[in-house]
Write a structure and sequence with these properties.
single chain, 607 residues, alpha/beta, ABC transporter transmembrane region fold, Rossmann fold, six-stranded mixed β-sheet, four-stranded antiparallel β-sheet, 18 helices, 10 strands, 10% strand, elongated
Length: 607
């Protein structure tokens, strides 16, 4: 499948669609949501009742005998409503907390799992720093969206509706009309200006992700930066992205100031008109002093949610923008998927067959052409050839990181595209050329081959890989941390950890992908001995550059330009005098030259 076949439309074209993905989480906790909404309504009713009680208190105190009789009942009611407003608000938040946090957890886990399901093609192109920042912003956006949509947009609209209704019922119609017009102008202004501002927010997010990508990439390659004295260069690269982010952030902030100024002007105009009407009513005697205080209290109460409504809408749009890229990751289709009724792979003997396989990473770059060979059960087949011949692609196809374009791959007669990926990969172990370890302990990295293994099994695997004594010599032994990508260990030590991890996994099929090409001769020989021990009684595919490491293979395949051009044992291929023989002669001359220089410099044969 080509990338164009599974590319998705950006989520930014359908930003509100992100809300739909959250509905299942709300439905799962519908009981809690309904209870929280009940507390919300009670809190708002209590809030609306406060100005009405204040009116009664003021009118009671405005009478000539007010000094003799206090409106005790209304004062107690006022305190009770204040308490109820605060209490029901806190109960609402407490009940809804589980809904919010569980939703964030579920979506974050869903994205994490989906990223692991995406094909290797995606992960070779990804920028880890940017993706991590997208997920971080996206989960924060979900938390904000759930809380503020349910507990701010809905109650604000409810409160505005109740206030307008009370004003219409108790006072002149112009109070309700001015309030409604002010609200309408405010909402329209907020909507259009916020939509205009979103391009600045998206640009700011984009620059933030790029800056984070540069920073993470530079820190992960700390040694390379130091080797080439490029600290200033890396700082300039980072600052270039920060400069673009700064520019977008300034535009975001200045446009926010314009939005807030406009909102404030609209609110101030509406509030002033309402207070003029109320004052005129008191002067004419059509309204009491309590009515004036009530209108003022309602205006204050209405001003805050109206101003907050604009802020919430703006922040919701920001949250949606923050969520766009995260949900965009979820929209990426899986390039490699299990078939609907895929069964588990059953490995009895471990017989492997590549049957006329063709494959290319891109439409204009074919890698393999009609590759056809067999790895008999419990035999070792080696694949050699120049760089770019397609050797490592065979291992990736065997693990089904990609699907073949033509032909098929069989294990004990079962097409690997018909079985589950989990069962397939559980049956195969690999020792790669570049062993990347987790930034954790040696124990954790070995146990990763079988996370449920006992400490005794982990130690036994380390002994089989001949690394136990080295680990025991360390101050913290198996609890020694290996550093980022295992950089605290040497190449040979990392390879032994990889071998121990594979031994612990105990697969039926083994792949050694240039497992010793980066090691010195002495270490290579020691590792090769261990690999031969591990490969005993296993079906083994060895991908190698150094021909001296595959002399004992049951059959050697020579690849060139994506095709198998020779096959046979080491002796047979040398006898034919073709590509393999020429490669062998060249490597022998290079090895003799290396030894000659080492002796000339007074060094041993291992340098």
């Amino acid at each position: 499948m080509r990338p164009s076949q599974y590319a998705q439309s950006p989520t930014s074209e359908r930003p509100w669609a992100a809300l739909a993905t959250l509905l299942p989480h709300l439905w799962e906790f519908r009981g809690r949501v309904l209870i929280a909404l009940g507390f919300l309504i009670l809190a708002k009713l209590a809030s609306i009742g406060i100005p009405l009680i204040i009116k009664e208190i003021v009118d009671a105190l405005d009478k000539p005998n007010a000094l003799l009789t206090l409106p005790i009942f209304f004062l107690i009611a006022y305190g009770a409503l204040r308490l109820a407003n605060a209490l029901f608000g806190e109960l609402r938040d407490a009940v809804f907390a589980k809904v919010t946090q569980r939703s964030v957890r579920r979506v974050a886990l869903q994205v994490f799992q989906h990223l692991h399901k995406l094909a290797l093609r995606f992960h070779l192109d990804r920028q880890t720093g940017g993706i991590s920042r997208d997920i971080e912003r996206g989960t924060a956006g979900i938390r904000f969206l759930l809380n503020f949509t349910v507990f701010n947009i809905l109650p604000t609209l409810l409160e505005i509706g109740l206030v307008v209704g009370i004003l219409l019922a108790k006072l002149d119609a112009w109070f309700a009309i001015i309030t409604f017009l002010t609200l309408s102008i405010y909402i329209l202004f907020t909507f259009f200006v916020t939509e205009w501002r979103m391009k600045f927010r998206r640009a700011m997010n984009e620059m933030d992700s790029k800056a984070n990508t540069v920073a993470i990439d530079s820190l992960l390659n700390y040694e390379t930066v130091k080797y080439f004295n490029n600290e200033d260069y890396e700082a300039r690269r980072y600052d270039d992205n920060l400069r673009s982010w700064e520019s977008a952030a300034i535009r975001t902030q200045t446009s926010l100031a314009a939005l807030n100024t406009g909102q404030g002007a609209i609110i101030a105009t509406g509030v002033t008109l309402l207070m003029v009407l109320a004052s005129q009513g008191v002067v004419r005697g059509t309204m009491t002093l309590g009515d004036l205080v009530m209108v003022n209290a309602f205006l204050i109460q209405l001003y805050m949610p109206m101003r907050f409504l604009g802020t919430v809408y703006r922040e919701i749009r920001h949250a949606l923008a923050d969520m766009e890229k995260m949900f965009g990751l979820l929209e990426r289709r899986l390039e490699v998927e299990d078939k609907p009724n895929a069964k588990d792979l059953v490995v009895q003997q471990g017989h492997i067959r590549f049957e006329h396989v063709a494959f290319g990473y891109d439409s204009d770059r074919q890698i393999l052409f009609d590759v056809d060979f067999v790895i008999p059960a419990q035999q070792k087949i080696a694949v050699v050839g120049h760089s770019g011949a397609g050797k490592s692609t065979l291992a990736r196809l065997l693990f089904r990181f990609y699907d073949v374009e033509a032909g098929r791959i069989l294990i004990d007669g079962q097409d690997i595209s018909d079985v589950t990926q989990t069962s397939l990969r559980a049956s195969i172990g690999i020792v790669p050329q570049d062993t990347v370890l987790f930034n954790d302990t040696i124990y954790y990295n070995i146990a990763y081959g079988h996370p449920d293994a006992t400490p005794e099994q982990v130690i036994q695997a380390a002994k089989h890989a001949h690394i136990h004594e080295f680990i025991e010599s360390l101050p913290k032994e198996y609890e020694t941390t290996v550093g980022e990508r295992g950089l605290k260990l040497s190449g040979g030590e990392k390879q032994r950890v990889a071998i121990a991890r594979t031994i612990l996994k105990n697969p039926r099929i083994l792949v050694f992908d240039e497992a010793t090409s980066a090691l010195d001769s002495k270490t290579e020989k020691a590792i090769q001995t261990q690999l031969r021990e591990v490969a005993a009684n296993h079906t083994t595919l060895v991908i190698a550059h150094r021909l001296s490491t595959v002399m004992d293979a049951d059959q050697i395949l020579v690849m060139d330009g994506g095709r198998i051009v020779e096959r046979g044992t080491h002796t047979e291929l040398l006898r034919r005098g073709n590509i393999y023989a020429h490669m062998w002669a060249l490597q022998q001359r290079q090895e003799q030259e290396r030894l000659r220089k080492a002796v000339g410099n007074g060094l041993g044969p291992n340098g």
